[in-house]
Amino acid sequence: MWADEQHRQPGSAASDAPRRRATIHDVAKLAGVSRQTVSRAVNDKGEIDPATKERVLEAARMLDYRPSRFARGLVRKGTVTAGLVIPDLRNPFFPEVAAGVLEAAEERGWQVVVCDTRTDGVKEREALGVLSHQVDAVVGYFKNDDEVLARHLGGMPLVLLERGPQQTRFAAVGIDAAAGLEQGVAHLVRAGHRRIGMLDGDRLEVPGPRREAFLAETRRHGLPVDDSWIVRSSGHSVEGGEAAMERLLDARPEMTAVFGFNDLIAVGAMRAARRRGRRVPEDLAVLGFDGLSLGALVEPALTTLHLDKRRLGRLAVEQVARLRAGEEPLTGVDAWVAPELVVRASA
C-alpha cells in the first residue's frame, strides 16, 4: 500500500551525495598490499608482519573502511542478519508484511533488524547508512530512487517492496495493481455504477500504479471518468480519507461509487459520506485496497481488494536468499502479489 515515490527528497548536500563506501581494493591500494593481506589484517590473522598489519589498519582507519557482513558471510557460515525498512509501523498494513518477513527469516535461522523511517526520505538514507555496517542485506519500502539508494548501500544486496521488477534495477517484489483494479472496477460496473471517483494516496507527482490502473479500467468500460474524478489524500489514514472525500463530493456530487487507495482511506470515505447524508452502499458504494482486518469490523463491512501481505514479506526473504546463493532473483509473475476481490456490504 505504499506509493513508489521516485522523486528526490530535500536534504543536505552531504545526505544526497555521500562519500562512496571504501572497499577492500581501496585499502589494499593505499597500503600497497594485496587484498588477501588486508583481509588477514582486519580479521586479526596471525600470519602477517606486525608493521604491515599496522600500515593496513591505518589505511582502513583513514578510509573509514568497514568490511561488509554480507561479504564475510560468503566465505564463512554464520548468522545472517537482514534489515527491514518500514515506512510507518502505526499503519496496520506494514506489521502484517513485517510478520511475513520475520516468519520466513526465522525458518532460515536469520535475524531481522527493523527500522521505521516514518515516510521520510532523509531517514531512509540514514537507515541505510547504519544498516550497511550491521546487516547482510536489506528489504524494505523506499521513496528514494535507485541512484540514491545505490550510493548509500555500499554494494549491499537490496530487495525493494512494492516496486515492480520492471521499475527498478534491484531485486523486488511488486503488487499487481492492474489485476486488482480489473476485478474491482468490473464489480462496481456490474452493480450499475458509471460515475466512479478515486481517493489517491500516492505521493507521486506522476500517476502511480493504482491510479494508472483505475483510469485504464474506467476507460476500458467506457466510463466518463478522468483525472478530475480523483482527489489525493493528505495521508494514508482514515482522517486523510475523510478530508479527501469531502473535496471529491464537492467536486463531483454526481458520484455513485468511490475507490480508496487503501482501506484506511476507504473507511475515511465512508465516514465523510455518512456525514454528508450519503448512505453506504445505497447512495455511494465504497471499495478499498489491501484487505486489512479492520475492514470486516467497520459498519458496513468494507468491500476490498485483498492482498496476502505475509506472502509479500515471505517473497522478499526468498529474494534475499537467492541473492546470497548467487542466483538470479525472481522476476515476472513469481515476483508479484495479485489482489483478490473480497465482496462485503460497502459495495
Helical residues, percent: 40-55%
Structural class: alpha/beta
Query: CATH H level of the largest domain: which superfamily?
Result: Response regulator
Radius of gyration: 24 Å
Q: Catalogue the unreliable spans.
A: 1-19, 70-76
CATH topology of the largest domain: Rossmann fold
Kindly state the number of beta strands. Answer: 12
- What series of H and E elements makes up the topology? HHHHHEHEHEHEEHEHEHEHEEHEE
Q: Biggest sheet, in brief?
A: 6 strands, parallel
Short description:
α9 (177-190) crosses α10 (209-220).
Tell me what you see in this structure:
This protein is α/β, with parallel strands linked by helices and 347 residues long. The chain has 3 domains: 24-63, no CATH class; 79-175 and 310-337, Response regulator (Rossmann fold); 177-307, 3-Layer(aba) Sandwich (Rossmann fold). It has 13 helices and 12 strands. The protein has helices spanning 13-16, 24-31, 35-42, 50-63, 69-73, 93-107, 121-131, 146-153, 177-190, 209-220, 238-251, 263-275, 309-324; strands at residues 81-86, 111-116, 137-140, 158-161, 171-175, 196-200, 230-232, 257-260, 285-290, 303-306, 336-337, 340-342. The strands form 2 sheets. Strands 2-1-3-4-5-11 form a 6-stranded parallel β-sheet, with helices on both faces. A 6-stranded mixed β-sheet has the order 7-6-8-9-10-12, with helices on both faces. β8, α12 (263-275) and β9 (285-290) form a beta-alpha-beta unit. α2 (24-31) packs across α3, α3 (35-42) packs across α4 (50-63) and α6 packs across α13 (309-324). The chain is elongated and about 85 Å long.
